[in-house]
Protein 1
Amino acid sequence: MGKKRKQQHKKRQNVEGVLSQDNQPKVDTDTLGPEEQGIVISRFGQQVDIADQNFNTIRCFLRRAKEVPVVGDKATFQRQDKLDTGVLVKFEERTSLLKRPTPHHGIKPVAANIDLIALLLAPELGFSEMLLDRYLVAAESSNIPVWLVFNKWDLLDDEQKTVIQQRLKTYQDVGYPIYFISAKHGDQVDELVKDLRGKQLLLAGQSGVGKSTLIKYLFPDLEVATADISENSGLGTHTTTASRLYKLDDDTYLVDSPGVREFGLWHLEDHDIQQGFVEIYKLAENCKFRDCKHIKEPGCAVLAAAKSGDIAESRINNYHHLIQNYDQQFN
Ligand SMILES: Nc1nc2c(ncn2[C@@H]2O[C@H](COP(=O)(O)OP(=O)(O)OP(=O)(O)O)[C@@H](O)[C@H]2O)c(=O)[nH]1
Ligand SMILES: [Mg+2]
Ligand SMILES: [Zn+2]
């Protein structure tokens, strides 16, 4: 550990006053209550915030950091007598685990038990099919359904709206549900939320698309940090720095997460790219060769569909770009 980090580390320990030198929590086991069920709403190093059945927050220490829980994990914990702290006992097996790339080619888990990704898009960051397709490939590789939410609809005039709707029609045709909302003003948010009921979803999308603004609109009493794009336009800065889970109702939960900027760092295997373009993947079973990559192989059903217009030009072009250039560009 570098000197500076060591100092910071020490400072954090002092401030919080809860971790001993060997990073083990000082837990007075005599005062621990019975086991309770909860859900992890946030994580800070060796601690997690767990919401209990009433959605009150208990800061819990990880006793043995064998496997680390993440936001969305269903957890069993024990509360310390009369305190809003406790210890995590265990967490349940996950139905899904979403991961994201770190700036240094690593991959870290972000959220567990997510059953829907709401991918937010916004006009002023320059809506691009290429970026969207990359997001979709990454999302599809997690096998979690994706919905597209075009936010900041209020910033567009009628002509611009028509253009965006036409461009997104390609994705509607492929099968992605699309919503056009204004999180800031609440336009169409109720319609979106009605369809989200019963799900545990992650809000994803570039920094500045308005993920936290949507949370803020849905939870007006909570303090949620948001910032103008001009304020946070420096590379690597994000207004939201840690994922956090919010409860909408008994079976609807939303996770706000920091926007991903470094999408190029997401390592994608060829088969991720192939499966990530769902309409291409579906057609691939009609190709003459089982290992067809739909580049220039004879008897390729995908290229035939692209030629006849059944696959959108931008999609096949982006697919080709990713499948042919990905390795050279990003590894
Ligand atoms: N006009 C308009 N502005 C919006 C809307 N939604 C969000 N914004 C603005 O967009 C900026 C960025 O919003 P945030 O909610 O902080 O974006 P974020 O996606 O949470 O960004 P990170 O936390 O950095 O990933 C803020 O200035 C918001 O006020 C909208 O519907 N319309
Ligand atoms: Mg945010
Ligand atoms: Zn093919």
Protein 2
Amino acid sequence: MKKNFLNPTHKGLQPIRVLEHNVLYVFENTYQDFITELKTSISKNGLQPGLTYHCLEKEIRFSNKDFDNQTPFVGLDKKIVLHETFLSFLWTFCYTILVVFDEGIQKPLLAKTYNPKNPLPEIANEALKLFDYGLSLIDNFTKWDKNLPNPEEYDDSKSFYIERTNAVYLYAIDFILLHELGHVNLGHVDESLEAHKTGSYISSHQIKEDEYAADKYAINLLLKGRENPVYQKTIEFGLIAGFSSLIFLSSKLTSKTHPDGDERIKIGLESLNLDETDNLWGIACLSLKLWTDKKGVTIDLPASTETYKDLFYLTLKKLEDKK
Ligand SMILES: [Zn+2]
């Protein structure tokens, strides 16, 4: 049976449009009563209600000029802006880490047949093909081939991973939206407005400090949603997926204005107080492995480690040497 969620009420040009309503819904319901906090941000800090959701068949481009920037941001008018192509990319990333980790690593490990040299199962290869599409959107827009996994039209047999991906994706984007909200509530947008008015300059050091602060702000709010245990693991997965997705937008982990991409993932993981055997350490390792593979960075890692947590810290150490 094919499932088809195509519906004329969905705003958008890409299959990710089926989740457009859910993006705002999950954001507004980050935790119980969060809506009250949002209303305070609107009345006290000048946040513009809602989101600007641009639907353009354009590549994901980062630009300092708001009108040209396709990555999520909050403008000087304090309205949070999303572009559909970035959201498509984010979904392909969430799907890929979920499927490759479960089907390519965890299941074989449990069956004691895991060998990194073995070919991946078909479903994991298909996920990697989808991710190549997602990555291609960074430089070049093409339409999503709906024969590949997507949230709009799929066979029933694919629902398990697609529907889990939808949930992880919604918390990953929620994390990103909360980060942008942090820039408003912590006074960073006012700081930029002031600099604009007076023609002064905000140092890269200050911008980086603000980015750390906005990350911390977003983590705290997102994790409040864990009060509802039903969503706990999905929220944690979404947080790590959100952080991890962002490293793919650049071929370097370091930046003048943002904390290093791998360090952000580390801060995210450490904020979760995870057990050392938690699979999220493995998900983060897989994300970094995908990044090194796709960006042509070679690091030497042992064939096995005691835990994914050990592998994660070892990977960070090796990446540090490459910076
Ligand atoms: Zn930011």
